[in-house]
Amino acid sequence: MNAGRVAGKVALITGAARGQGAAEARLFAAEGAVVVLADVLDDDGETTAAQIRASGGRAEYHHLDVTDESAWSALVADVGERLGRLDMLVNNAGVGDRRGIIDMGLRGWDRVLDINVWGPLVGMREVAPVMARGDGGAIVNISSVAGLTGYDAAAYTSSKWALRGITKTAALEFANDGIRVNSVHPGTIITPMISDVPDELVRSYVRVTPQRRAAEPEEIATAVLYLCSDEASFITGTELVVDGGFVAGGANLSLDLRLREIKEVSNA
Question: Which PROSITE patterns does the protein's record reference (predicted)?
Answer without folding.
Answer: ADH_SHORT
